[in-house]
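Please complete every field before forwarding. Incomplete forms are returned to the sender.

SECTION A: IDENTIFIERS
Entry label: holo-250
Bound molecule: adenosine-5'-diphosphate
Molecule representation: SMILES string

SECTION B: INPUTS
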Amino acid sequence: MSAVPALSLRNIHKNFDGIIAIETFDLDIARGEVVALVGDNGAGKSTLVKIIAGMYQPTSGEIRLDGEAVHFTDASQSQAKGIQVVYQDLALADSQTVYMNLFLGREKTTGSFGKLDRRSMIAETEKLVRDLDVRIPSAKSIIRSLSGGQRQGVAIARATHWATNLVLMDEPTAALGVAETARVESIITGLKARNLAILIVSHSLDQVFRLSDRICVLRRGKQIGIRKTGETDKNEIVSMITGLQAATRI
Ligand SMILES: Nc1ncnc2c1ncn2[C@@H]1O[C@H](COP(=O)(O)OP(=O)(O)O)[C@@H](O)[C@H]1O
Ligand SMILES: [Mg+2]
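SECTION C: PREDICTED COMPLEX
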């Protein structure tokens, strides 16, 4: 692990019109590390993901990428820093093709007239979906015609393609079947091997224990603790999530 974390969060606090969504949150994620963020509905997980992605601004606190303080005011700014997000609620353009979705906002063009270089975008998309084993009929398929699992595959392929630092995944397999989930998990393992930092929100503790290096627990906006995955078990994590057993903070 390098000395400077890919992502550092310090004293992150968020309230929405006086309602506290995140009390105080601290976390470092190293390159090549998978951190799982777990907690019940309303714990603040998605809020935290959106804060890191620049969709929400923290009420107070500090975000650093590779040691450098950042203040994102929208998602395009975090993308420019190599951060990609796969959201719980899919964010794809339904009436567009798979390849246009992969290049949304970064379309390739040819020559000086800005004509879309469809051939090259299609070829790159085909290679990417083949490499990731995302099973879709064609790079030219319209998103609307795909199954939920196939759409999520496209969203993950897009994130994988553009991420250079950090991938945030908010319940990426919540709507998927067993085989699709296994493919997504192997993609996440591949991202880790590429030395990206990964934060995954998941309700599946089996998945969390398969994928993560550390587990961070939120309960109603409070950071309950962080555990090394190899040094904890499901019982402890469940008790931290539910609060049915006292757990010490970090
Ligand atoms: N845009 C928003 N405006 C007001 N309250 C919000 C907003 N987004 C989230 N919240 C509140 O913040 C809390 C945490 O929500 P969320 O981050 O979605 O939880 P989780 O993803 O862990 O289920 C909830 O009480 C939710 O109602
Ligand atoms: Mg959520």
